[in-house]
Amino acid sequence: IMNHIVRRQLCFVLFIVCISLFYAESPNKIKQCKHGTFILSDYDVDISEHMRMYGEWAEGELNLFLSLIKPGDIVVDAGANIGAFTVPLAKKVGPNGRVHSFEP
């Protein structure tokens, strides 16, 4: 199990490095926010801008959603945008749960 955890962490670090190199000259910026690491777009004047300024998005709604799910649940995040709810929901359901998110 420990080997699997280390491997996942290394994959995540490699992913962040690759994304950082790819987006270095783009309007998208990687930012550590309250609930995780996100790619925020300079073109998004709503969610990305709010997360850039305050480190979170719709905290009241998110807290409601988090209170309704438990580890191991399967959750659908329809209209996920940049994943402001997806990331904390995935942390809550844990490795035995699933979050299916999509942005139409």
Automatic annotation (TrEMBL):
SUPFAM superfamilies: S-adenosyl-L-methionine-dependent methyltransferases
Domain of life of the organism encoding this protein: Eukaryota
Alphabetized Gene3D superfamilies for the sequence: Vaccinia Virus protein VP39
InterPro entries per record: SAM-dependent_MTases_sf (IPR029063)
Signal peptide: 1-24
This protein's UniProt keywords: Signal
Record-given protein name: Methyltransferase FkbM domain-containing protein
